[in-house]
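Q:
Just now I want nothing more than another pair of eyes on a protein record. Here is the record:
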Amino acid sequence: MEEYVVKDGKKLRLGYTTGSCSAAAAKAAAYMLLTGVQKDTVSLVTPSGKQLELQVRNIVMEQGRVTCSIKKDSGDDPDVTGGTDIFAEVCYAPGPEKILIDGGKGVGRVTRKGLDQPVGAAAINSVPRKMIRENVEEVCALADYKGCLSVIISVPEGERLAKKTFNPRLGIEGGISILGTTGIVEPMSEQSLVETIRVELTQRREEGAQYILLTPGNYGEEYIREHLPVPPETAVMTSNFIGDSLGICLELGYKGAVLVGHIGKLVKLAGGMMNTHSKYGDCRLEIMTAHAAAAGLSSARVREMLGCVTCDDALRILQEEDEQKGLSLWKDTLDSLQKRIAFIMDHRVFGEMETGAVLFSREYGWLCETEHAGTLLEKIKEN
């Protein structure tokens, strides 16, 4: 696919989704089954309106059955399914339904509530199912075929690839999901990451959770495992999308959320940054220094703290000042930070749900927590 977007000054090539591959493979296989004519390319109009012309691969034409594949092209997006063949097997089937759609080898099965498909169904999401059905029906109309067809989507490499995705966390077993709402892969799509967070939060809510544990990433998960009385797998990873995650929690009707994270990430919340990616700003040391100065840090050490590279190094300065002068800068600075973080989080959810935060450092361990964090952690543990 030779279409591009420009992000952060870089020209990035678009790709197409596993949903588009599945629909195109099904369309080609249905055409060959109903006409008996081999088809080496297939056209597909995606939900976004873009038209694709795709090479048909691995064609096997048998009596009453045709199998073929489309190679997934992720463009410049670092998608684990890039280069993978997505297969469709189409055969005649009895029954009143016109098109039967299911997953075969390498397509996951849903085992938990709250996902796009019900428990027990193949993890082929709603939009890809609609694309498959509409494209196969188009071929049926062309061939004047009024019976039923069975479409089985498979991904031979799917079970291996699924280990590199969120599927095991979401309760999708045995393979990858067939996804895509536009049919097009936009490189480094932040929206797709937010939607992944939404899926996991929706699933937990469907399972009855009223309080949820959030963490930006692996550091937080490691800290939860070693220091908190809740299993780390209960945490939903937010990446940098802390504001979006809190908003989704509110939308889904959670009663409370606790965010556990490294100070280098969560200190940005004290400055009102709801997306903590460095491309939106890196004000970690400025925020820490402002709170330390308000707590009484000397001007000389304020200048030194502003020159620090990491939050851990800034904490060292507070520790040294306390030890040398008998002050309480460490406590007072962190207390000031947690109160501001509590205010910002509460403001983000309009005070309509309880929020809390726990801050830690890999060098110093637990640092501080907001007023309601402990109570919320107990509620999460009870859940």
About this structure: The mean pLDDT is 93. The chain has two domains: 4-185, 190-382.
